[in-house]
Amino acid sequence: xxxxxxxxxxxxxxxxxxxxxxxxxxxxxxxxxxxxxxxxxxxxxxxxxxxxxxxxxxxxxxxxxxxxxxxxxxxxxxxxxxxxxxxxxxxxxxxxxxxxxxxxxxxxxxxxxxxxxxxxxxxxxxxxxxxxxxxxxxxxxxxxxxxxxxxxxxxxxxxxxxxxxxxxxxxxxxxxxxxxxxxxxxxxxxxxxxxxxxxxxxxxxxxxxxxxxxxxxxxxxxxxxxxxxxxxxxxxxxxxxxxxxxxxxxxxxxxxxxxxxxxxxxxxxxxxxxxxxxxxxxxxxxxxxxxxxxxxxxxxxxxxxxxxxxxxxxxxxxxxxxxxxxxxxxxxxxxxxxxxxxxxxxxxxxxxxxxxxxxxxxxxxxxxxxxxxxxxxxxxxxxxxxxxxxxxxxxxxxxxxxxxxxxxxxxxxx
Length: 414
Description:
Peroxisomal Thiolase, Chain A, domain 1, three-stranded mixed β-sheet, 21% strand
């Protein structure tokens, strides 16, 4: 891209996942094959399997803030502050009106509404005991808004509802706003508090799509013949994005450059994906990046360990990368479960260190590969050493047929 101000780079990373509360910890556990799935007690259903985060919300919030706000807000606040600190920005000197906060979410407000209804049920459904914090807790912009309160950001903030494509959507929106000149710094990515709503477990259970396994760590099994559903997870992954000249001027560490992205819609079904549209989305991102499929080194797959979803994505991957024997395909949900709105963000960020360490992390729990999901390039159970990693492509798809793809390039200079 000829105009350097149109080149957007990642300069800070903040995350919390079921198996790590920083990029270094997360990456180390991915390479070590360490799962973050555990048993979790949820209202009305009892014990389920979930990806639970164990970050310290009081690192950046007071007890009053946590009590007044939401779990998604705490996750977003933690990740945003971690990203800003990691970026090396002198935050006191940053013009806060030129900062935008763009956070992808799957849904918001379910947890808070369920909790309030449960509480008033103890008082004969007397609405006088309903919390006056309910409205600011349940507005869709809550997680992004809580970030602005924490960091005193006075620029624009919003949440992007994009189902399980939301993490990528947050990155994409940040890139677009920077390229348009609307902001000078974007804090963006995705968050999820999904495990704290019993409704999501109940719905997946009634659908026959909720994972079970005697060993929690082995429950999330994308592409495996013995997979039996989704492990729901919470988490968050946010980054600071800047225009390249700004990052270079302050000597920032550059994790990678976002060079391609795409979003489209299946327009076919509420739940079942369309591999043709997924393949189109991947090809559009490749075209915008100005590269061919065989230049991609790592493909981070979306696969959730549902039978049909894994099969359909495999069809799309074979269609685009079938003639690319050197690409490595992996899956992060096998470690942490499906973090919904945070999934795409965490999955991309977990792979970005491959630019430096040259490893494609594995897909764990892949004991009996489903022949209907045949992908010869799939990295199974052990990390794969790569000669070089220049491009990472991240798939992230969601209900109602929303598809997103982001491509990040190793930064190799101006």
